[in-house]
Amino acid sequence: MVCLAVYTNGTFLADPCQVLERRTPVELRQEINLPNATKHTESQRIFTCEVTGHGGLTYEEARQSETFEHEFFPNEMVVWAPQGATKVDARIREKTSFPEIKNPDGSISRPATARYFVELLQGGDALLARTDELSRQRRHFNKTVIRQFVKNSVHPRESWTGAPWIVKEDIARNFHIPTDVPANLRHDAVLEEKKKSALAQRTAQHEDFIQELANEGKLPGISSGTVLNAEQLSHFYGMFIATQNDKNGKGIGRMANGGKTSVFQASLPKAMKPEPLKFPCDDLEIPIKKRNAVSRPQLKFLTSDTPSLAYVRLDSDPQPLTGDLLQIWHTLNVFAPLFVLDSFTFDDLVQALAIWNWDQPCELFSEIHCAVLKVIVDRTGELQVKSLVEVPSRYSEWETYLAPDAESSSETEDTVQIGVAATNEGPLTTVDKARILKAFPAPEDWTRRVGECLFQNDTWQFLMIGLLAQIATKSHEFRSICEELLAKLMPTEEDLDLTETSTRDLYAALDLASRVKILQLAMLHVPDTKGVRSFMEDCDREATETRKKKISWQSKKKPLVKEWQELDQQRKLLRPDASNSLDDQPIPAAIENDDTDADSDAEQVDDGKANDEDSESEEDITMLSRSSGRASMLKRKREEEAAEKELQKKVKVDLDDNTKYEKVLEEMATKAEDIKECEEEIKLHDNALRENACHRARKLGTDRYLNHYYWYERNGMAFGGDEDSSTADHGYANGCIWIQGPDELQAQNVVYLNAEQSEKYAKRTGIDITERRKRDEGKTQLQDANHWGFIDNPDDLDKLIAYLDERGRDEKALRKELKNWRGEIAHRMVKRQERMQRDEAIQDDDEEPVAVGVATRRKQEANRAEGRYSCLQWWNSMAANELGRLHSEGKRGKPGPKPKGSRQKQAAAAVVKELTTRSGRRR
User: Which top-rank group of organisms is this from (predicted)?
Assistant: First the structure.
């Protein structure tokens, strides 16, 4: 019990109303007669038990509670703490009391004791405990306990004032507490109640104000001092509200009182200003410039007017095939070591697919198809594409594929109808299907021939038909397009079987679109092969090693740069004014700004000097024109002479200082050479990492209309093709920036808006989205992702960079990428233009009269074709060096040693051999 007062010799030493915490309990063993003034204190519930912590007790209740401090009772919760052990919560089960034992002389032999049989709450063990091992745990009921209880019992409240607590599910289920929030405690109900109370408060204020006006006699028809009733208050309150707002919601501040100005005026809300745009923002939210607006340069498209297709007779429009052609070209060049193909340009691929026929063979066309077949089928004749495997027997699945099925005739997707000819629209008869079944090569047949590389005399077309039939049999996704292509490759005469010769003739008669589709179908299954996966894993391992080497060179470069900077500070301290001697010392690129070129810096310096000279000359002319010009010039001349003398004094240094200065310059030159070496190594490793990034084609970025920009030389290949390829002298691989139209799903609600969205956009930006796009892109708009355009001119590249607005998020990133790669892109564009000009010059020179002799005429025609079609200059030197022969020349040759290292190292270590063509000319 807390001691409240001490009574000594009839006087109180402390105020009985004070509460002193944590004091020694008071035991009143004798009856004490308290004065009458304090008897009322005993009955007040202001005492607290010191043992249990119970409060709100009278004096007698607190004293009795403290009397049994060392006595415990059954079912009471206690703390068992034996000597040297941890405290454990327990419950008293039984109590045994032992009385006091005295000796004959009256001394106490054994004091009164008690033994308790307790049960531990953790584990349920029971044991016998002494009194001194037990104690009560006093737990105060305070805010911390309440806060912890609430935290453990309810969910976090919602983020609005007055949100109710919601009990957790397990507690609500155990104690049957409803968890449904009452309607009056929900957010909308609370907000509505607040609005009603605020409205009632405003109404009361207005009515008080109107009553005050009535008391002053300022209301029409009401004498001063009149107490308005509820009807009058409602009437004048309505007039007050009506006069505060006109029909447009703007306050007018007058009342119907004979035209007199009312004592109250309307408070006009301040006009809301639109928040200013924070850049970078969404690209289409940037306000358009009405003056000096820069538009995107006009795009070019792959058409018959393209220089590479100028002398080619096209039977189909190449523009819809642009995306497929780019995909084929990029895959073949990125995985060129896997296909064992020399790199080639995009122009050569398009030209080769367009010109190949029986009279005009093209090595590039044949090598591509043979290389793709050899990747899909390995040396043992086994298919490497899992989706095309699992053929149980020779003809079982082919017969199921080609045989008529009456039950499934209604299912068009499972019914195969291959036309005998392009003009034959009717279904195949049983005889036709039997002929097709006999004509098409079986899976075991064509895969075995591909494994043995039986490609002599251009027989690979027959094997490509086997691959198409295999895809049609196994793939439901490509079945319809395969049926369409196989129908074009079937002979028209009924008695003519599908032979290698007839297949070659039919393949030569295919249009450009069909050839692209066949090659694309084969290329789509290449990524599923084991060879591609192994190639990508090798690239990843090589990239990891290259990255480690790059980090080591960067770590080596960092202290060198720091040391160079320290030496530069020493140089400035030794001779601060002798800056001319530093001209001979190269400054490392790591110290300078990487974004600026040396040429541009030199131009800026020259321009600055010229501007300074011009300003000085203009200043001299201005001073001479003044009345006091002569005196000013003399004064300035004296100042210059004094400054020159002062400079000469500072330049004079001792011989020791001069020796130190020269030594510092030598050390700086050495450090600069080391830094330059590190930078060259880092640049080589960066280029190796770029070429090993073969997983996907990385785009440069997107513009405001979600057009995608690609520069395919950015990763996965060398900028100008492989250095040891047959066409390495071209100096470019693609030489264009390709722009793909917006994806339909991405452009929805961003570029393509409905009427309501377009109206809101025009109101927000001041121009319609369609009109803005027409103004920005002109006539060369790309409607969807199937449309492609390109830029092949450095001037158009600069215009494109100027067109992009760096205030937009997407265009800021795209503009940065274009500026970073601008030099390399422009260089490859120039190389492409130079080659096109050379080809045009050669084609003009070929307009000479044909010779009379047959042999001479044939040789002249061959030379003219090779000059007219640049793709005929390509040959597969990689296959000749590594395999011993070309892919299309027959069986697999003895494989050469497996190349190691990056392409640059392979090119540097390759032994250049002089190889000749079959005609005797050097490749």
Answer: Eukaryota
Binning pLDDT at 50, 70 and 90, where does residue 655 land?
low
Q: Is-contact 376 385, C-beta < 8 A?
A: yes
Q: Grade residue 919 by pLDDT with cuts at 50, 70 and 90.
A: very low
Range ranked top by mean pLDDT from 17-26, 67-76, 195-204:
195-204
Sign of the C-alpha dihedral computed for residues 599, 600, 601 and 604 taken in this order? positive
pLDDT tens for each residue of 898-913: 444 444 344 434 433 3
Integer Cα distance of 815 and 418 in angstroms: 51
Beta bridge partners of 80: 88, 134
- Closest C-alpha to 537, from 718, 688, 694, 386: 694
Averaged pLDDT, 873-896: 79
Q: Which of 163-167, 387-391, 490-494, 793-797 has the lowest mean pLDDT?
A: 490-494
CA distance 844 to 311: 12
C-alpha torsion sign, points 594, 596, 598, 602: negative
Beta strands in 275-325 (DSSP E): none
Going from the C-alpha of 435 to that of each of 40, 420, 492, 501, the distances in angstroms are 123, 10, 12, 17
3-state helix/strand/coil string of 635-673: HHHHHHHHHHHHHHHHHCCCHHHHHHHHHHHHHHHHHHH
Under the banding of pLDDT at 50, 70 and 90, the label for residue 65 is confident
**Distance between CA atoms of 69 and 24, rounded to whole angstroms?**
12
Helix and strand numbers (H, E) in the chain are 30, 13
C-alpha to C-alpha distances, 563 to 406, 556, 670, 903, nearest whole angstrom = 86, 12, 11, 35
- 266 and 245 Cβ atoms separated by less than 8 Å: yes
